[in-house]
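Hi C.,

You asked whether I'd gotten around to modeling the 615-residue construct. I have! Everything is below, sequence then structure, no commentary in between.
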Amino acid sequence: MSWEVPGMRSRTWSFNRGIARDLLRRYWLLWAVYFLGLMLLLPVSVMSSSRNPYSPDRFFNYAVLSAVRPCVLLSAVFTLLCVMAAFAWMYSMRGSAAMGSLPLSRPSLFLSSYLTVLGMCLAAVAVTALLTLAVAVPSGMAEAGPILIWAAVTAFGVIAFLGFAVFCAMLTGNLLLLPLAWLLIGCAAVAAEYCLRHLMAYFVYGMAVRRQSLGALSPLCRIVEGLSVSSVFDETGLAIPDAYRLNDVGLMAIYAVCGLVLAMLALLLFRRRALERAGDAVAFDVLKPLFCFCMALGCAIVLPAAVFDWRFNRSLFGPGAAVFLAVLACISAFIGWYGAEMLIHKTTRVFFRGWKKLAALCAAILLFFAAWESDLFGYERRVPDPAEVESVSLRFLTLDEPENIEAVCELQRDIITHKAAHESAGEGQYYEIAYHLRDGSTLLRNYRLAVTRDAMLDPDSDFRRMSALFNCREAILERTLGDFPYEEMLIAGGAINWQTEAGYQHLPLSSDEAQKLFFDALLPDLEAERIGQQYFFYETPEQYTDATNVTIEIIGMPLDRNDTDRQYYLSLTVQTYSEKTVAALREDYAIDPVPYGTIYPPDEYSLLADAIVFD
């Protein structure tokens, strides 16, 4: 026998004005605060930018588009608060009984509340946009297009997050759990993927942590990172003045459609929701096993990542890390499962409920760790065919010459072969390799290479070979002349800086002096790979023996004298084998470069201490 009271039924789906008036009377201040927040973020922001003397013309358009992201996030928070206010009666037995006794159908009650909240939020957006148009457009502060884009995307955000919030409201009977469920579901995909990749990086060699493939499934996280503003470029690659583009507009339209779908699903759930579920953690019996499973799986992913980072801090890798994490994940799943059971049944006497399902989940977790540690899926062993690679990126460097792509692939094979040595090393340096394949996909790996004294001194070690890739000919030319088109600009000046035992020395160069030094010495040395080397990661012997104490700076200006916004800058550290540059410094400036290590040798804490010796 069921004691659930579904409430009075009616075939009427009409909008009830009494419900709407009651919501407006009781919660008008909430919408007023939302409207005030929009006004502060848009019109006030545009007007304040007009007072900036350093802003270029039409900077106001950029300010309008830049206000979209904070306004959408504000809408997300306020739609949640509005839903909590409009449906607060569902979370108390007295309120549920009172509303259930009204001669209103469930659809009418839902639609009256939902449409009232939606209408007031959209009205706030519309009024803000109209006021901004009335103030900014006639005065020339901003154009109408960006303001209309702001209004459209903010309205998309209202529709999307209102549907999401009202859907979450139907899942639980506890008002305090609603914002928690809203936050967890809104960020679940990104958080789970990040924590899982973070865990796997300890025992799956090469696992890339920063790559996120499920970002679009977590709207809160995606909006925080997205909705950016970028310049519009012409066919020559130059930015068009006063032209800006808001990214992810199409994604926001998709989110709005999803919000409408979630609102319809919420209506279906609302029609079948029992009034007696007020106060329950989960409002539907069919969802209780799913809730336990999600809590257990979430704890199995998040808690081991937090505990392992806190206790071991990247000091345990490989099979040992896999075993420890597998056990820790099972313990965390136990905590999550029975924590969920306690919330559902409101008692601590739950430890014999669902233990078979929990055991099956723990077995699946152990199989997951065993499969990835044994490289059952071939993730660790995969090295792309160089013929299928269009280019390869090493952090901030991109290489596309076939011989360099082949060198990276060969180095990756050796790194995989030396996996055990790299995982067991006390000190390590992370290097990321991103292969951009010809089919448009990207293969990403992140390797921890052993950084030991022997690795630093051995030119054939994986660490030294990776460092050498950053100083190949293609890398040097890309890093230096790639952003310094000397044939299309005027060399305006420069400087020579060098370190001595007496301190820092600086010598400014005139335009003629800088041109002579660049074309007669620096450029020939660059083309011959005798200068342009840089040492980014850890220490290598070359930064003490080959690099000198002298750095040369060259400044360039566009040939078009009206183009005053751009300036080119080139900084090069002179090497001991920079033949023409060293000769020019000695002959023209009486500067004698010396190895950097003669002035600043490795200190006593360096792995290269006592390994670099000068006569």
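If it helps when you're writing up: The chain has 22 helices and ten strands.

Thanks,
B.
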